């Protein structure tokens, strides 16, 4: 699990708390993510999974505790924060591809504007990545012309184009028609095999069993249970998790 | 009709002054309006407050007062001189006044455009490491502009018609004299009025059609 021989953890959350007004959405979260690890976060709606995900690239600020990424506390703002974000990919439930840009431009914008890569080079790499997620032939189309599954694969390619140290996925398949879920999950399993560090909020048990090293079960802002996928799904330890699993298994 | 032929050349010259004024103000107010809207959506509270204050003051002040302020307040009292030639100086003071005024409307049109851009676009932009200004310039404003091209057209048309306020107010001395002389001599005959109205329409109607067409053509599919 130490991809580049570096044994220090990539992400460390210590005593993280977050409120939305009077709502306590993250309660004393302690969590460590190792390099090359694939972590699946699962739990009931409103449990704080998205907030946790977004706190790691500071799309959401926290009001207590510390978050360290690659040995450094998260920068608060400005250029340093932008640089941190360029190192943490993010894939959203609703894709959020840039609607006025072509597929290829979506993938090359970051490398060109943030990393200063030459256009030709960025386009070559962009095409390689689009091929890798199976969208090569759609490069000159606009996002609205693609299916949800295709858009989400482009979103993954857009994240990969920044050569991130980690990718956060917030329910990447929840907005997709059932027949498109697998094509996206296949790409994600491929990434996991290649050693990408990933934090994935998902209820896809198949993905968790195939690709995850660890499952974290979150409810009411707390991490209730942490285990390997096999043990978590076959023998959950807490009643909260048992109850939740019985609901998602029977529907 | 004879009046129109007789005074035509002088009026045309005055009208040309309005066209020049319109082009300058159009460019300047679009730039200033974009700066203002950037302030109004910026994460810095001071900039946001300054933008809001500007828009609320300028938008709610009658144009005649804004023009009077730029001519009398800025020029006479504060001694702002934009050119050594008096007529050129007054031309630029009008450009300044009308642009300051129009920019507040451009800003608000753009802001309503920004409100139609889904939050996810800005989040995705930030998530790949774009700074606030980069997200605004590369992702948010291009999409906002496209949704408000037609309303922006209306703002520009209103601005073009407002150039006559500057003329009537006497801030644009040359054109004002021409117009006043013409009206005095002809007793403000109907052909003169019609001629001017048609000239303005020839200018503003295409802008309306063009911006309407562009707005439909460039609409962002979601
Ligand atoms: N911007 C916000 N302002 C106020 N409350 C918010 C905001 N974002 C989230 N919340 C609230 O915080 C709680 C946790 O939200 P979060 O989105 O993290 O949950 P989640 O586990 O991702 O749920 P889901 O499975 O529905 O996506 C919810 O009660 C939600 O309503
Ligand atoms: Mg969520």
From TrEMBL, chain A:
Enzyme class name: translocase
Residues in ABC transporter domain copies: 11-245
Topology in membrane: Peripheral membrane protein
The keyword Kinase is annotated on this UniProt entry: no
PANTHER family assigned: AMINO ACID IMPORT ATP-BINDING PROTEIN (PTHR43166), GLUTAMATE_ASPARTATE IMPORT ATP-BINDING PROTEIN GLTL (PTHR43166:SF9)
Annotated InterPro entries: AAA+_ATPase, ABC_ATPase_HisP-typ, ABC_transporter-like_ATP-bd, ABC_transporter-like_CS, MetN_ABC_transporter-like, P-loop_NTPase
GO molecular function: ATP binding; ATP hydrolysis activity; ATPase-coupled polar amino acid-transporter activity
Superkingdom to which the source organism belongs: Bacteria
Keywords from the named record: Amino-acid transport, ATP-binding, Cell membrane, Membrane, Nucleotide-binding, Transport
Species of the source: Planomonospora parontospora
CDD domains assigned: ABC_HisP_GlnQ
Reaction it catalyzes: a polar amino acid(out) + ATP + H2O = a polar amino acid(in) + ADP + phosphate + H(+)
Signal peptide residues on this chain, from the entry's feature table: none
Compartment annotation: Cell membrane
Gene3D superfamilies per record: P-loop containing nucleotide triphosphate hydrolases
The name this protein goes by in its record: ABC-type polar-amino-acid transporter
Automatic annotation (TrEMBL), chain B:
GO BP terms: amino acid transport
Entry membrane topology: Multi-pass membrane protein
NCBIfam families associated with the record: HEQRo_perm_3TM
Family annotation (PROSITE patterns): ABC_TM1
UniProt name for this protein: Glutamate ABC transporter permease
GO cellular component: a single term: ATP-binding cassette (ABC) transporter complex
GO function term, MF aspect, one: transmembrane transporter activity
PANTHER family, per the entry: AMINO-ACID ABC TRANSPORTER PERMEASE PROTEIN YHDX-RELATED, MEMBRANE COMPONENT OF AMINO ACID ABC TRANSPORTER
Record's keyword annotation contains Transmembrane: yes
InterPro entries per the UniProt record, alphabetical: AA_ABC_transptr_permease_3TM, ArtM/GltK/GlnP/TcyL/YhdX-like, MetI-like, MetI-like_sf
Domain ABC transmembrane type-1: residue ranges: 15-211
The keyword DNA-binding is assigned to this record: no
